Amino acid sequence: MSRKVTDNTGVADAAEGTPARHAKTIIIGSGLAGLGLAIRLSQQGRTDYLVLERGSDVGGTWRDNTYPGAACDVPSHLYSYSFALNPDWSRSFSRQGEIQQYIQKVSKQHRVLDKHIFDCDVTSVRWNAEASQWEIKSTQGEFTADTVVSAVGALCEPALPDIKGIDTFEGETFHSARWNHDADLTGKRVAVIGTGASSIQIVPAIAEQVGHLDVYQRTAPWLLPRFDRPYTKLEHLAFKHIPGFQRLSRAAIYAARETQVVGLAKFPPLMRGFELIAKAKLRSEVPDPELRKKVTPNFRIGCKRMLISNNYYPAVSRDNVDVVTEGIAEIRANSIVTEDGTEREIDALIVATGFHVTDSPTYNAIVGRDGRTLAEVFDDIGQQAYKGASIANFPNLFFLLGPNVGLGHTSMVYMIESQINYVADALRTIEKKNLRTVEVRRGVQDAFNTDLQRKLRNSVWLNGGCASWYLDKHGNNTTLWPDFTFQFRRLTKEFDVAAYNTTTIDPDHGNRADLKAVTTR
Ligand code: NAP
User: Fold this and answer.
1) Which residue among 61, 175, 218 has the greatest number of ligand 1 atoms within 8 angstroms of its CB, and so is best to mutate?
2) Residue minimizing CA distance to atom 43 of ligand 1
3) pLDDT at res. 491
4) Distance between CA atoms of 225 and 274, rounded to whole angstroms?
5) Which ligand 1 atom minimizes the distance to the CA of 406?
6) pLDDT for the residue numbered 505
7) 401: DSSP letter
8) How far apart, in whole angstroms, are the C-alpha atoms of residue 413 and residue 419?
9) Please, is 231 exposed, middle or buried when counting C-beta atoms within 10 Å of its C-beta (0-12, 13-18, 19+)?
10) Mean per-residue pLDDT for 309-332?
11) Which CATH number belongs to the domain containing residue 81 in this structure?
12) Which regions of 6-140 does DSSP assign to beta strands (E)?
């Protein structure tokens, strides 16, 4: 706790016993969302904010997911900030390293790194009603803020499987999002648990290198072709020098992707077209009928995230790779035992079992107006927010990438920028109207969520016959946006203060600085 802070934020260093540092706005997390908001605030000329980031660099999920084969499923020209287009993307679908370099470059170009405090793990965020401020505890000391923006994202907390004996495994083991690059898998007997988006990239990337690979599949995923290729020199020149060419390319990708929501959310029978393509792919890429049967999904395509890969089926068809569909009964010191009693020896275990999405441990750290944590509130009502950004009982707290703003088919960066518009306008409104607190009205939040769940009723996510991480423990889809993304952009264009209960700054104290002066801590 007493570690010297090496940030260059202009606020006092944190050390044991020193007073909490104050910033008007504190952003937690510096992935594409938190970083994007920081850039917007700087563009607005604001200097009164800080970004607390638990890692030692920007990038969030793209910093953390360094597993072999990691790449984006959304084309590069759409998976980038609208204010920082990149004519230099090397291929149509970027790989992790290139995306991370892009994020680092943008953070430097926009000169926001001096507003960051890295290696700063936030452990508690508690509302102080008397001071109308958030009190934040972190591994880099304490902070207070008039407004907090949580930009930690949904895919940040690895979920480890609760399998008997997993703790007793003696070989090398790690989660896909915490890849151990020191572990040499060459020639080893390796097991991968899970067949989601991460696994289907890892398996082909390591299949050739390892001695033997067992892929433990609980549910077979649907796979579509990946139209990935390097850009030619001519295309690079066009992206760079022909005015509007890159924007046009981006718009075309956006439009093509946007049409998918019609089948996913509104009229699932339309997804049959995708299923036909996926089945043709299965037939051509998995010649062995027994293996094909194993890897053929048993639910409507789109119910879980549709995956794109050209090398997964060839990888699992290799002689040194087995797809194991019997459930895992137990993990032992050097082996995995399946429910049919078969024991397979392994040297290394890779856990590609996803993330805590609807039950993020970060929800336990946030304590709202009535003393309840966000986890407790969500336990009652499910993961709910208003426009994915604000939650009743949590005044002056905004979320980027909150409930129901997720997407499976197009760029999250588009949704992030919509939310940045909303939150940046909220901060401007708070200042302009001299507001002390803003808290979304319960009735408004409820009506918003009733409408969301009505829209989701016919979706493939609820009717496609699968169990996915999109659903919370109440069976509601509380992660995905069920409409066109341009509708969300329209809804978040401006901060609708009328949807919020507000209090104004006490005229006796004039401003917040005075307010703090009379508040005892
Ligand atoms: P995921 O999609 O949640 O997949 C987890 C896998 O682990 C599933 O196959 C799941 O099986 C299996 N699993 C979970 N618990 C298990 C258990 N106890 N025993 C056996 N199997 C178990 O996680 P992910 O692959 O890390 O992907 C998460 C999300 O990250 C993606 O949906 C996507 O949004 C994002 N992502 C994107 C990319 C990309 O753009 N290319 C790449 C990676 C990740 P069930 O299906 O039966 O639950």
Assistant:
1) 218
2) 198
3) 98
4) 10
5) 34
6) 85
7) S
8) 10
9) middle
10) 98
11) 3.50.50.60
12) 21-28, 49-52, 116-117, 122-128, 133-138
Substitution candidate for ligand 1 out of 162, 353, 413 with most atoms within 8 A of CB: 353
Q: Angle CA(480)–CA(51)–CA(503) in degrees, nearest 5?
A: 75
The rounded Å distance from CA 24 to ligand 1 centre is 38
Q: 355 C-alpha vs ligand 1 centroid, how far in Å?
A: 8
Cβ atoms within 10 Å of 413's Cβ, excluding its own: 17
Q: Please tell me the residue having the least CA distance from ligand 1 atom 4.
A: 196
- Is the confidence at residue 14, as pLDDT, over 60? no
423-437 as b/e: b if 16+ CB within 10 A: bbbbbebbeeeebbb
Whole domain around residue 91: which residue ranges?
Answer: 21-157+357-520
CA 194 to centroid of ligand 1, rounded, Å: 6
Say how many domains are in the chain.
1
Instruction: Tell me how far the alpha carbon of residue 451 lies from the centroid of ligand 1, in angstroms.
Output: 28
**C-beta separation of 437 from 396 below 8 A:** yes
Please state the rounded mean pLDDT for residues 423-452: 97
pLDDT in tens, 75-131: 999 999 999 999 999 999 999 999 999 999 999 999 999 999 999 999 999 999 999
If DSSP codes are grouped into helix, strand and coil, which group holds residue 364? helix
Please check whether residue 485 lies inside any domain of the structure: yes
Question: Cα separation of 411 and 255, whole Å?
Answer: 11
Judge whether 37 lies within some domain.
Answer: yes
Nearest one of 11, 33, 31, 30 to 22, comparing CA atoms: 11
Q: Which amino acid is present at 171? A: G
Domain assignment present for 369: yes
Q: Report CA(199)–ligand 1 centroid distance (Å).
A: 7
26 lies in a domain? yes
Q: Which residues line ligand 1 (CB under 6 A)?
A: 71-73, 155, 161, 163, 176, 193-199, 201, 216, 218-219, 305, 328, 352-355, 469
Q: Which ligand 1 atom sits nearest the alpha carbon of residue 176?
A: 26
Mean pLDDT estimate for the chain: 93
The pLDDT of residue 518 is: 27
